[in-house]
Each structure stands twice: as C-alpha cells, then as structure tokens.
Design a protein that fits this description.
Elements: E1 5-10, E2 16-19, H1 29-56, H2 65-93, H3 98-120, H4 125-154, E3 162-163, E4 168-169
Antiparallel strand pairs: 1-2, 3-4
C-alpha cells in the first residue's frame, strides 16, 4: 500500500505495525503522534542508559559480573529500541544514507551476537567488558542517527506540506 508508514514498535509476536497517512495526505493522526512521543522517550532513555554504562565501564572502575550483566541487558534493550526508531524515522524520510544504513546493520549484527551471551550467560568479565564497549558505541551511533533523522522530520519545509512520503507535516503536530 502506498504511503504506509512502519511504526517503531511491533506486536507481541514480533509482527511489524503500520499506519497510513490521513486522507488529506498530511500526517498519520493520533497514532503518528503517539509514535513521535514513543520515539522521543526511547532517545531519552538511550541517553540515560549510555550515561550509566559509561560510568560503570570507565577505566579503573571495578564492577562485578552481576552488575556488568545488568548493564549488558539494559544496553541490549535500549539498542533494540533505538534501531527500530532509526529505521522508522529513515523510512518516513523516504531516503537512504549508505553510511547510516551500514551503521544500523552493524548494530543488528552485534545484537545477533549478544543474543547468545544473554541466553547462555557464559561470558567472563573481560569478555562482557569488551562487548559492553561495543554496545555503547553502537547505541551512541543509533542515538545520533535517530536524532539526525528526527531533526529532518521536524524541520519546517515549504509551509507545512507533507515531507518525504507524506507521513509527517513540516510544522507542528499533524492530525
């Protein structure tokens, strides 16, 4: 369907959720506004998780394996959501940046590797520290991409006409 916009969340069974632009082609109404609020909340949470992780991973800070595993779970959780936000915003922009796409794919690959560590829990502290450092790098990159794409979506254009594929308005909230 033309103009369908993927939302940054999925159903319980992992099926993607979508919305369509309003009949006038401007915005996606309440669902689109909710997606914008959800995305903004995810960016704030990711920044908070990054700050905490950087404190725990700072040189000279001694942290036990249990604390590192807790940081690991929070980073993975946040990275999964930020990948969704970055992809959703990129799809709404209707453009593709090869560098951004490569960074998103690298985040997906890293998440695939971390799944095994989450399931088995068989990582030594030095291994966790290494993977955590990579997760921090990827999460910081996803926040950067999501914020850049969000700024492009929010930028005023030629008087409020639809931007990209018509999924959001250039000025203010869309309804």
């Amino acid at each position: 369907m033309k103009g369908v916009v993927r939302l940054p969340w999925s159903t319980v069974d992992g099926t993607p959720c979508y919305t369509v632009p309003a009949p006038d082609g401007h915005g996606t109404g309440a669902v689109g506004a909710l997606a914008d609020v959800w995305e903004a909340a995810q960016v704030l949470q990711a920044r908070s998780v990054l700050g905490a992780a950087r404190v725990w991973l700072a040189p000279g800070v001694r942290v036990d394996g249990g604390r590192l595993r807790a940081v690991f779970v929070r980073l993975v959780w946040s990275l999964v959501r930020m990948v969704k936000v970055a992809e959703s915003r990129g799809q709404r922009l209707g453009r593709s940046d090869a560098g951004e796409a490569a960074r998103v794919e690298m985040a997906r690959v890293l998440l695939g590797h971390t799944e095994d560590l989450l399931v088995t829990g068989n990582a030594e502290v030095f291994q966790l520290r290494y993977v955590l450092a990579r997760l921090v790098e990827c999460l910081a990159a996803m926040v950067e991409i999501a914020e850049a794409r969000g700024a492009l979506l929010a930028a005023p254009d030629d008087g409020g006409a639809p931007d990209g594929d018509g999924a959001r308005c250039g000025k203010g909230a869309c309804g």
